[in-house]
Amino acid sequence: MAKLAEKSNHGILKGWNAVAKFLGQTVAVAQRWHRSGMPVNKEGRSIIADREVLTKWVGTEMGKKEPVHIASEDEDMFPHRSGLDGKSSF
Q1: Residue 67, CA distances (Å) to 29, 37, 49, 64, 70 in order
Q2: With 41 labelled, which of 6, 49, 66, 73 sits at a CA distance of 20 to 30 A?
Q3: 90 in a domain, yes or no?
Q4: Would residue 88 count as lying in a domain?
Q5: Closest by Cα among 21, 56, 18 to 39
Q6: Which strands sit side by side in the sheet containing 46-50, from one edge to the other?
Q7: Residues 60, 66: contact at Cβ < 8 Å?
Q8: Is the distance from CB of 4 to CB of 48 less than 8 angstroms?
Q9: What is the largest CA-CA distance in the chain?
Q10: pLDDT tens digits for 57-81?
């Protein structure tokens, strides 16, 4: 908590509404993610969260150790299944 207080307030989100808005989710989803391990700190009756810490947590698929890969629309999801002629091999 002391490290969090030492940082400037620019990167700090205060309250569930701010955290949810930052994550692009509802308050209920943000609170559920917190119960699943999303890092937030209690400050009195409210909560605070560091934007950088939340970004890192979301980028590791809700706290898992391996980063998430988000596929783009034009990415071939099954490159090992297509033959040289572009036709499906299965």
Answers
A1: 21, 16, 21, 7, 10
A2: 66
A3: no
A4: no
A5: 56
A6: 12-14, 46-50, 41-43
A7: yes
A8: yes
A9: 64
A10: 887 655 555 555 556 677 676 766 5
Confirm whether 23 is domain-assigned.
Answer: yes
Regions of the chain short of the pLDDT cut 70: 1-9, 60-72, 75, 77, 79-90
Tokens for 1, please give them. 């908590």
CA distance 19 to 48: 8
User: 3-state secondary structure string, the chain?
Assistant: CHHHHHCCHHHEEECHHHHHHHHCCCHHHHHHHHHCCCCCEEECCEEEEEHHHHHHHHHCCCCCCCCCCCCCCCCCCCHHHECCCCCECC
**Global confidence as pTM:** 0.58
Residue 69 is predicted with a pLDDT of 58
